[in-house]
Amino acid sequence: MYAKTSLSILLFWLLAVIDAEPTEIGAYLNNPKDKPKNKNRPGHGKKIKVDFVSTQEPLKWTYIGIYKSRSQDPVNELPSDDLLHSWLHDCNTQAECSYEDKPENAPIKGQVVFSLKPDSSEEDNELYFPLNGGDYRICLIDWTLDIDDDCNPDCDPTFELKAPCETFQVKYPKKKQKKKAVVTTPTDTAVGESIYVKVKTPVRVVNQWVGLYSVDDLKFPVTGPLPAEKLWAFTHCEENTGNVQPNESCSKKRGKTKTIAFDKKSTYDCDNCKWPLAKGKYRACVNFNTNDPFVVYKCSGEFSIN
User: What is the 3-state composition of the chain as percent helix, strand, coil, each rounded to the nearest 5?
Assistant: First the structure.
């Protein structure tokens, strides 16, 4: 005869195992453990908490990086720099840690949080928070400077993966996020006049934005990645510089309905944008992805600039 074990006890044991703090060197996703199926699947637009276990060594500094994950890349090899999406030092900032001069005093365990603040963006790759839906990996990495007679302040550091990376997936936006969104534009407007676009988004994310597109670039029906926008603006921040510095992001998302005024300020940080827009037909599209490719959006009908 087998001993009977209640479902509640089995569930308790399962959650206890899932909730156990990591003890081996590495970086580990810390996601709500009350839903085991979501353990390695943070929601779209949500903060990403990472626990780490490290070592203390002289002349070795540690950071935690989130990289785009490809199936052909082994988890025990340092990912390519061009796959780096976000990173933080083990003191939860991209700025210098208090133990910068003595990395042997760094914590051997802790947690970092990837979000708008502190800034965790990898600007060299033009990748920003929040992450698009898709596959990623978290890696714990040491960087070292060889201090010798030939080294100078410009010498290149050596990077070393401290433990195998952990793979995870950011959830894609919910279907209702796109389905329930409504974008309304004026029937027509004159060249040089401000363009007012009304956006209703019952499900919102930080850094949500709207772009104006020429119908010459955006044929109907609108499918696939969006082309380069002609103007752009956040839905919930009045300026394209946002309200979170220094990464010029927009953390605001209160309010289902917003009216955005497009004018000269909507050309900020956009190489292809010019004001005023030329005569022609356009569409407005609200984007739920912060990073290219922009494949999750809802567009308006056509409007004219005369």
Answer: 10, 35, 55
- Name every residue whose Cβ is closer than 8 Å to that of residue 93 and which is 6 or more positions away in sequence: 118
Structure tokens belonging to residue 18? 């899932």
| Chain Cα centroid distance, residue 77 | 23
Specify the pTM: 0.86
Give span(s): CATH 2.60.40.1930, the chain. Answer: 175-305
Distance CA 102, CA 133 (A): 38
CATH topology of domain 175-305: Immunoglobulin-like (2.60.40)
Number of residues that make up the chain: 306
> Beta strand pairing status for 134-144 and 158-161?
antiparallel
262 forms beta bridges with 195
Mean pLDDT per 10-residue segment, the chain (306 residues):
46 46 86 62 92 89 96 96 96 94 92 94 91 96 74 73 96 90 94 97 94 92 92 96 93 95 96 95 95 94 96
Identity (one letter) of the amino acid at 103?
P
Choose among 303, 291, 7, 300: nearest CA to 134. 291
Strand 297-299 and strand 48-53: the pairing is: unpaired
